[in-house]
Inverse folding.
């Protein structure tokens, strides 16, 4: 019989610092529980200052933030929006909420993020087809920034705004500039498994305060500023509660520690496993610092002669949670029939990463013993 006594090791679990409690107590003491309140306003300002943006709108999820960002840049039914393919479905779902059509762009091997060459091909063809995209959703996958020098130059040449999906990369930098500062609008997520959490939440960031006010208005049911309940536009109930913003303020205080801890987890795995034949890790582009939200290991299954799913299964038997890399959106049944621009005409980088990638437990709260347990298991599964 297999022992089941081993404590579970999670992929990425919430990591409270203890600093959250004081903010929550303050919210209780003043009975500012919800909606809104001083923690929300302060949290928005603190995040915007940290990232170097003029303002932020705290929302109930990163998905809501993407939805409102797309609305702000004017996405309407029938429009096309370009989007990274190697990402979580939340990056693209809001495009469909607005009845627009996503077109997916492959990854480049250097960053695993949106390939600038494929982006350029897509833009050129769209413009020739007389369907200039309304936006480009650029994702910083697993905490690694996309190549913004090139992507920004291309986007500007075509006059298409960038929405930066920095849900996984809070705390990362690209050429010394913080993640979240590259999009015309940028979004963050404070879901339970992200760099920091409010249990659930997100933020829309930008530099046009009037536009951000418009998003704030939409996020509170588009209620006109009059005493009776007057509505001229369609709105949403997307705001973050004051209580949860308090949790976020406490978490923000320890963000730098969280990034350092996840980067350490990565270093430990790479040091212990990087020398195994057929094993490689996600690269970090020169001049960038990844948040290393999740450590992703690539296994060349021809060299190791083991299936990715079998490795994950074996880890699960030891009560260790691991997952495949994101299944690219252009391969999702939901998006069947959507256009896709590969890295090279006959090279689909995102699909290859999906076929060979494993996300290892990467939480900032993983102990050395837990990391050793993962390493020991993988060392016994993989051939030297
Ligand atoms: C988590 C995540 C989101 C969505 O955030 P929620 O707060 O869960 O709505 C969007 N994009 C990416 C890349 C994510 O990882």
């Amino acid at each position: 019989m297999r022992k089941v006594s081993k404590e579970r090791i999670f992929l990425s679990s919430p990591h409270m610092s203890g600093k959250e409690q004081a903010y929550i107590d303050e919210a209780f003491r003043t009975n500012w529980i919800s909606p809104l309140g001083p923690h929300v306003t302060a949290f928005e300002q603190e995040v915007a200052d940290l990232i170097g943006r003029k303002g932020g709108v705290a929302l109930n999820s990163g998905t809501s933030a993407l939805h409102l960002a797309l609305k702000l840049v004017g996405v309407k039914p029938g429009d096309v929006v370009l989007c990274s393919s190697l990402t979580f479905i939340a990056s693209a779902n809001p495009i469909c909420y607005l009845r627009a059509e996503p077109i997916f762009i492959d990854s480049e091997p250097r960053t695993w993020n949106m390939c600038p060459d494929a982006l350029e091909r897509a833009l050129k063809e769209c413009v020739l087809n007389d369907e200039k995209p309304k936006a480009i959703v650029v994702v910083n996958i697993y905490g690694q920034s996309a190549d913004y020098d090139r992507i920004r130059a291309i986007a500007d040449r075509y006059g298409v705004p960038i929405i930066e999906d920095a849900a996984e990369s809070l705390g990362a930098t690209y050429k010394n500039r913080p993640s979240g500062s590259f999009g015309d609008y940028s979004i963050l997520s404070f879901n339970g498994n992200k760099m920091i959490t409010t249990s659930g939440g997100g933020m829309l960031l930008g530099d046009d305060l009037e536009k951000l006010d418009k998003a704030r208005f939409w996020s509170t049911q588009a209620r006109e500023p009059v005493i009776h309940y007057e509505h001229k536009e369609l709105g949403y109930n997307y705001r973050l509660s004051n209580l949860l913003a308090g949790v976020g303020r406490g978490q923000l205080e320890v963000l730098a520690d969280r990034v350092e801890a996840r980067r350490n987890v990565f270093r430990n795995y790479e040091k212990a496993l990087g020398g195994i034949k057929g094993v490689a890790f996600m690269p970090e582009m020169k001049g960038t610092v990844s948040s290393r939200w999740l450590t992703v290991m690539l296994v060349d299954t021809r060299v190791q002669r083991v299936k990715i799913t079998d490795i994950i299964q074996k880890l699960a038997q030891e009560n260790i949670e691991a997952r495949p890399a994101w299944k690219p959106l252009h391969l999702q049944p939901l998006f069947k029939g959507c256009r896709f621009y590969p890295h090279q005409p006959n090279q689909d980088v995102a699909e290859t990463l999906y076929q060979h990638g494993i996300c290892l437990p990467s939480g900032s709260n993983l102990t050395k013993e837990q990391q050793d347990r993962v390493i020991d298991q993988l060392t016994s599964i993989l051939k030297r």
